[in-house]
Amino acid sequence: MLRAFAFLCTLILLLPAVAEYAPANAKWNQPVPPFRIADNLYYVGAEGVASYLIITPAGDILIDTGFRETVPLVEASIRKLGFRVSEVRILLISHGHFDHAGGVAAMKAATHARLLVSPAEAPMLEHGDKDDFAWGDKYAYPPVKPDGLLKDGQPVTLGGVALTPHFTPGHTKGCTTWTMTVHDRGQLRHVVFACSLSTPDYQVVNNPKYPNMQNDLAASFATMRALPCDIFLAAHPWEFELDRKRAALAADPNAGQNPFVDPAGYRAYIDRSEAALQERVAQQTKAARGGS
After folding, report:
1. Entry pTM
2. 8: pLDDT confidence band, cut at 50, 70 and 90?
3. Is 166 among the residues known to form the active site?
4. Is 99 known to be catalytic?
5. Listing from the earlier edge strand, what are the strands of the sheet with 35-38?
6. 42, 43, 139, 202: the active-site residue
């Protein structure tokens, strides 16, 4: 009886801590059958938030975990492909929002993998994205301490695979676009895992918590335009038409060209993002001047 009472008291004490974390977007968090994109690169994410598994002889690399609630889906996808969750050695992220990094603490606990992030993103993970420059504490998640800090352009290597971080801030202060190469149907392909360039509901003009946002985004557009890209991937499936490409790949896996080879789609993604930013800046600048 006393043990049961003590357990109940402990559970009650934990409830406020659990409740402070934002829940997943249920529609985005639906399972997706995992599949091979090319070579040693696999999709293991959910319907609305992407996760990527890169297999190497020395262990595996995972990019993004999705929400807290996405972690079991990612783990199930890894196992369904015939790999082991315990073989994940390195955790990387595109950026520290709850829909991409909310599950990092749980995945790190499950795998004991090393978490490597950009210096600007480290504080965001360490406090679980509280006091976000756009949303405050609205989308908080379990905090996690990185094991190491990235250097812009310096590859992360494991088992003969090299993933290169390119700092592309703006969506968050430490947004990171990743690149690697894979062999695909007899050709060497450049892969880009594009970090988001969007500014959803952001105060872009004169944001006191991020005064350099516009300059950062301008530099990020230039950085991403300069990257060679054959296979275009991103943090959200709709940004690179995952459903259409996945269906085309499943319908004809031996087609002459992998449907995920899409350099034009990559350029269009950057163009759309830049146009949306310019429109937002124009609207906010006009509003700041009193609508004149």
Report:
1. 0.92
2. very low
3. no
4. yes
5. 35-38, 41-43, 52-56, 59-63, 88-92, 114-117, 148-149
6. 202
% residues pLDDT > 70 (the chain): 93
Q: Which domain holds residue 146?
A: 26-288
The answer on pLDDT for 17 being more than 70 is no
From the candidates 100, 132, 139, 141, give the one annotated as an active-site residue: 100
Does residue 7 lie in a domain region?
A: no
Task: State the Cα–Cα distance between residues 291 and 25, nearest whole angstrom.
Answer: 35
Which one of 39, 64, 97, 132 is the catalytic residue? 97
* CATH at 228: 3.60.15.10
Q: Which of 60, 99, 129, 132 is catalytic?
A: 99
Is position 181 within any domain?
yes
Q: Is 100 a catalytic residue?
A: yes
Catalytic member of 43, 52, 95, 266: 95
Q: Enumerate residues 6+ apart whose C-beta is below 8 A from 199.
A: 170, 171, 213, 217, 276, 277, 280
What is the CB neighbour count within 10 angstroms for residue 82? 6
Sequence letter at residue 35: F
Residue 166 in domain: yes
Confidence of residue 56 (pLDDT cuts 50, 70, 90): very high
- Cβ of 181: how many Cβ atoms within 10 Å? 17
Number of domains in the chain: 1
What does the pLDDT look like over 77-128, one tens digit per residue? 999 999 999 999 999 999 999 999 999 999 999 999 999 999 999 999 999 9
Residue 42 is among the residues annotated as catalytic for this protein = no
Examine residue 13 and state whether it is found in any structural domain, yes or no.
Answer: no
Catalytic residue of the set 21, 39, 171, 184: 171
The CA angle 199-200-204, to the nearest 5 degrees, is 45
- pLDDT grade for 254, boundaries at 50, 70 and 90: confident
